[in-house]
Write a structure and sequence with these properties.
Number of strands of chain B: 0
Low-confidence stretches of chain B: none
Strand content of chain A: 5-15%
Strand order of the largest sheet of chain A: 2-1-3-10-4-11
CATH superfamily of one domain in chain B: MetI-like
Number of domains of chain A: 3
CATH architecture of the largest domain in chain A: 3-Layer(aba) Sandwich
Shape of chain B: flat
CATH superfamily of the largest domain in chain A: Periplasmic binding protein-like II
CATH topology of the largest domain in chain A: D-Maltodextrin-Binding Protein, domain 2
Low-confidence stretches of chain A: 7-42
Strand content of chain B: under 5%
Number of helices of chain A: 16
CATH class of one domain in chain B: Mainly Alpha
Number of helices of chain B: 12
Largest sheet of chain B: none
Oligomer: heterodimer
């Protein structure tokens, strides 16, 4: 090792000398193969770039706050890989929703800010718009118009106004990941690519009966509320809010209780399903694509990516759109705009997919060098969205600062009915009252999959 | 009083910590009061209080918090007392015990929770050990939310993590008791148990009071260990306060929960102060 270290040092000195003589930017790469004899020899390349003159364009310091890519691994990929080629210094600040919202609103309130670019779910923007915190990003439309961002996504970026407030950045959704060992237990005649929720339950049951273990998992400590709002409710009732206590909803909850007998009891602690999938604690799991990606990336041959199952009313699913916006207090608006343009470039979008598992918001062909597991995941996402019986369910908008409370209502209904075994009708009646109060107080009109309403959305 | 002769020095020295307390404790506390009892338009309201009491998670959170306190505090107290008395016997090598006992003190509660989670989880250390020894032929689900195991795991994690706080306070108290008393009792023929019960414990009362108050208040606020071990399978008051703030985004409800926790803490402190009252003549 010592020998290589001195070689490296020599290289660095040489590079320094060369750099001192050269008039332009010189990058010297010293390749030092390091052999480790633990199990497999690993080749490492150490790059020593030396810059003398600054690159021609430098947008300076750009601060980018985001509610996505918050987990440490994803944040590191953002800093180290995805943002690495941007001509400027990007300060990537991952923040949970609460911190994010408080920070942006506090800066706007103070009239002086540090944040240049905001990355957030489309459902997280209305609160900011209500506080007049967002800049008009229409000047960017020209630059991104050839990127092939779907018109429907651009429309979402207007947040129901005539002004463009965010540029679609990336998208994600929720799918099923299955260990190939589980395929042996599929119910007879079931096509894993187009399962029904009933078949999903039978699958779980078969696995339990054959192995004695409950190997189907749900992220109860993670994004379970999205399963309730965007998947099982639309699949069984055709709606999310208006059908909250409908007879179909009662049937649906009976089904969820039935399914739950075969669900892994440690689901209560699962936040990201990729972990129990990789430890094989569970074989089949439903979760957000970014929370399954490591399983597909690390063991593409062991896992299948499947579209979410469907119910009597169709295949309810929730497309997640993440947008890029700028606060009115951005200290470096030029840098901010350049960063948004950079993030929506095809090559950046592909890197983003490869590194953090969010799919491009722009039109790109899946290139050959995307890992097979991710390609499989992308295909499942496409199949899900393109299914003939698809029911896209949007994230709640229009609830403004109270958009978190709706999740509590669905989660509480779940806890009371499925975990505490309370009477379904009583719980639905009580939680529907909470839901209606929330809708009335915020005046939120219905959003898809519920039909549009005049005035606040009404639970039927 | 003659202002010139008034000695300002002690007050000046106290000023920094007083300012700290005002700005970082008293002021946020008043703000929390405001959030809990004031609507966005500024008028006073009991709405948030009502919503908290009618919240379906409230009773479960309260019951679990109380159950945990009842299970943890006495257990920790007895253990810490035994450890402290053992320490005071000045056996060979007992100095090392202090360091061993204090290790968990240096670990954050979340880290402690994660450590115990990795012990009890399906593919955790305990299952691996039992499987390796041939006791189990397949992993046992300790953290099954339908069983009492997660509760037991939380109690164990808390006892492991925080007993040393009680221990440190009790050792300090024991060291301040002159040995003469115990020796006198011994001369009159009291055995070890009688000496502890009749002499040491009554003299230790002020320390016991401090230790119990501190420990119970910390147990009321217990949060990270529960989240790490039980996930969504069990909730406590601090957990609900956190979720109302960070997930459901209602600072009002979160502040109301925080106020409730404060009231319980004050209540328990008051009860301990009354129950373990130290009479003036008893203070050494």
């Amino acid at each position: 090792m010592k020998k290589y270290a001195s070689l490296l040092m020599l290289g660095a000195i040489l590079a320094g000398l060369l750099a001192a003589c050269a008039p332009q930017t010189v990058t010297v790469t010293v390749e030092v193969p390091v052999k480790e004899t633990v199990e497999v020899p690993v080749e490492r390349t150490v790059e020593v770039p030396v810059e003398v003159t600054p690159t021609p364009v430098d947008y300076g310091k750009v601060t980018f706050i985001s509610t996505q890519c918050v987990p440490v691994e994803e944040a590191e990929k953002m800093r180290g890989v995805i943002l690495a080629d941007f001509p400027g210094q990007v300060e990537f600040v991952p923040a949970d929703y609460a911190t994010f919202e408080d920070t942006v609103l506090a800066e706007v309130k103070a009239g002086k800010g540090t944040i240049d670019v905001i990355g957030a779910l489309h459902g997280q923007f209305p609160t900011l718009l209500a506080a007049d915190a967002l800049q008009d990003v229409s000047p960017l439309l020209d630059e991104v118009k050839d990127r092939g961002i779907p018109e429907a996504y651009m429309e979402l970026g207007k947040l129901g106004t005539d002004t463009q407030y965010f540029i679609p950045w990336m998208q994600a959704t929720y799918i099923v990941a299955a260990n190939k060992q589980a395929l042996d237990y599929l119910p007879a005649g079931a096509d894993p690519e187009s399962l029904t929720w009933e078949q999903y339950r039978d699958w779980a049951k078969n696995i339990y009966e054959a192995t004695g273990e409950k190997k189907v998992g749900f992220p109860v400590n993670g994004l379970l509320h999205r399963f309730l709002e965007g998947y099982i409710y639309p699949s069984y009732t055709g709606g999310m809010v208006t059908t909250f206590k409908s007879p179909e909803a009662v049937e649906m909850w009976k089904f969820v209780k039935d399914l739950w007998q075969y669900v892994h009891p440690e689901s209560m602690s699962y936040e990201f399903m990729q972990e129990p999938l990789m430890s094989e604690e569970v074989w089949v799991a439903w979760d957000h694509t970014a929370r399954l990606i490591n399983a597909f990336k690390e063991r593409p041959d062991d896992f299948l990516a499947l579209p979410s199952p469907s119910g009597p009313k169709g295949l309810g699913f929730m497309p997640v759109i993440v947008g890029l916006a700028m606060p009115v207090t951005a200290p470096n608006p030029e840098g901010g705009k350049a960063l948004i343009e950079y993030m929506t470039r095809p090559e950046t979008q592909i890197t983003t997919l490869r590194e953090v598992g969010f799919f491009p918001a722009i039109q790109v062909d899946f290139p050959g060098y995307v890992a097979p597991g991710i390609r499989a995941q992308g295909e499942a996402v496409t199949k899900q969205a393109a299914a003939s019986n698809a029911i896209p369910a949007m994230l709640p908008v229009g609830l403004g600062p109270r958009s978190g409370e709706i999740n509590k209502i669905y989660r509480d209904a779940f806890t009371r009915i499925v975990i505490n075994d309370e009477d379904i009708e009583t719980v639905l009646e009580e939680e529907a009252a909470n839901l209606q109060t929330l809708l009335n107080e915020t005046g939120a009109p219905c959003w898809p999959p519920d039909p549009p309403s005049e005035g606040p959305c009404q639970v039927k | 009083m003659n202002l010139k002769r008034f000695n300002w020095e002690p007050y000046l020295l106290l000023l920094p910590s007083a300012l700290y307390l005002v700005f970082f404790l008293a002021w946020p506390m008043f703000q929390a009061f405001g959030l809990a009892f004031q609507a966005d338009d500024g008028h006073l309201t009991l709405d948030y209080m009502q919503r908290m009491f009618s919240d379906v998670m409230f009773s479960a959170a309260l019951i679990n918090t109380v159950k945990l306190i009842i299970a943890i505090v006495p257990l920790q107290f007895i253990l810490a007392l035994i450890m402290a008395l053992l320490m005071m016997e000045r056996l060979r090598g007992s100095d090392i015990l202090v360091y061993i006992y204090s290790i968990p003190l240096a670990i954050s509660d979340l880290a402690a929770g994660i450590i115990w989670f990795s012990i009890f989880t399906q593919r955790g250390y305990l299952n691996s050990l039992l499987y390796g020894l041939g006791v189990l032929d397949k992993p046992f689900l300790f953290l099954n939310y339908q069983s009492n195991w997660p509760f037991a795991a939380i109690v164990l994690a808390e006892v492991w993590r925080a007993t040393s706080i009680v221990f440190v306070i009790l050792v300090a108290g024991l060291q301040s008791i002159p040995r003469d008393y115990a020796e006198a009792a011994e001369v009159f023929g009291a055995n070890w148990f009688t000496r502890v019960w009749r002499v040491t414990l009554p003299l230790l009362r002020p320390s016991i009071q401090t230790a119990l108050i501190l420990r119970t208040i910390l147990a009321v606020q217990m949060f990270a260990v529960v989240v790490a071990i039980a996930g969504r399978g069990m909730t406590v008051l601090a957990n609900e306060a956190y979720r109302w703030y960070s997930e459901y985004r209602s600072p009002h409800l979160a502040a109301t929960y925080a106020m409730f926790i404060l009231v319980i803490s004050l209540g328990t402190a008051f009860v301990y102060l009354r129950a373990l009252r130290v009479k003036e003549e008893m203070v050494l």
